[in-house]
UniProtKB/TrEMBL annotation:
HTH lysR-type domain location: 1-58
Similarity section: Belongs to the LysR transcriptional regulatory family.
Stated name of the protein: Transcriptional regulator, LysR family
Gene Ontology molecular-function annotations: DNA-binding transcription factor activity; transcription cis-regulatory region binding
């Protein structure tokens, strides 16, 4: 059988802390901490970087944890009678999304795949980007979903663009800007902005609205991913938010909000899926990726005329 320390290490990597990792495997924190420390002494390098908020895999530790997760999964499949069933489209599909405000982009794909293969069960989690990448590397999730601009920074994952996120600023319906036919960037700079996290190109564009006019963006920008909270703040203040084009057409939006679509502030942001480069995707992962691309609404289509999307496609090919 495999060294039990591998199980403890993978649990810590997936949980992001010794305390949560110990709870996941049902032993004490001190036992897990000692087990990981023993492994680090044996391999001769640090697997985790300890921080006040938990642990983060080092570069060498990430490779070690990924290999350990692969061994554990392969061993589990060998002893699992369900793994020998002919139905390859069964089991749990674990999908991570960052930022969490993008979870809606995969809902239709999950619904369609569930209809095609009822034996598949889903685990959908939203998190920060660094956390999602660590989960992907350690095998805690099978697929990562996010903005390609962020995913492209990681060479150890295989990316595939499945759509483009078209967004615009929006305000409450009775906001002063809603009555302006062609608002300018100077008009926007008079108000606070609410930006999603890990949101290139949104982050750079929003900062430029203020810095180009000598205003400290740190004093004007709020970072919030939970869209119901964003809507609540927009309704109760003069702040400006960011909304996806696909949401603008939803019932009830125009009753309370106004999209500043004429401003054309944000370029289309390519959306991508990512899987581990050194791990062959399972059939259910490949099926999900195929359905994901086919299920995107027209408002998220990849426009051939958009230079940003074309460059992203060239990088991903």
């Amino acid at each position: 059988m495999l060294d039990p320390r591998l199980k403890y290490l993978v649990a810590v990597a997936r949980a992001g802390s010794f305390t949560a990792g110990a709870a996941a495997v049902g032993i004490t924190q001190s036992a897990v901490t000692k087990s990981v420390a023993d492994l680090e002494r044996e391999v001769g390098y640090a697997i985790f970087e300890r921080t006040t908020r938990g642990v983060v895999l080092t570069e060498r530790g990430s490779y070690f944890a990924e290999r350990a997760a692969m061994l554990l999964e392969a061993t589990r499949d060998l002893f699992d009678p369900d793994a020998r069933r002919p139905n390859l489209y069964s089991g749990v599909l674990r999908v991570g999304v960052a930022p969490a405000s993008l979870e809606w982009t995969v809902v239709e794909a999950i619904v369609r795949l569930r209809k095609q293969h009822p034996a598949i069960k889903f685990e959908l989690t939203g998190s920060g980007f660094e956390r999602m990448i660590q989960q992907l590397r350690s095998g805690a999730i099978d697929v990562a979903i996010g903005l390609d601009a962020a995913l492209s920074d990681w060479p150890d994952v295989n990316r595939s663009i499945f759509g483009a996120l078209h967004t615009s600023p929006f305000v409450r319906k009775d906001h002063p800007l809603a009555a302006v036919a062609n608002p300018t960037l100077a008009d926007l700079a008079r108000y606070d902005f609410i930006s999603p996290s890990i949101s290139r190109p949104h982050e750079e564009v929003i900062r430029e609205v203020y810095t180009a006019r000598g205003v400290a963006w740190q004093n004007r920008v709020n970072v919030i991913d939970y869209f119901p909270a964003v809507k609540r703040l927009i309704l109760t203040s003069d702040a400006i938010g960011v909304v996806a084009a696909a949401y603008v057409s939803q019932p009830g939006f125009t009753d309370r909000f106004a999209a500043l679509s004429n401003l054309d502030l944000f370029p289309a942001a390519p959306l991508a899926s990512a899987v581990r480069a050194q791990w062959e995707p399972k059939p259910i992962v490949r099926a999900f990726l195929a359905v994901l691309r086919a299920s995107q609404p027209r408002s998220m289509a990849i426009s051939a005329g958009n230079d940003n999307v074309e460059k992203a496609l060239d990088r991903a090919r």
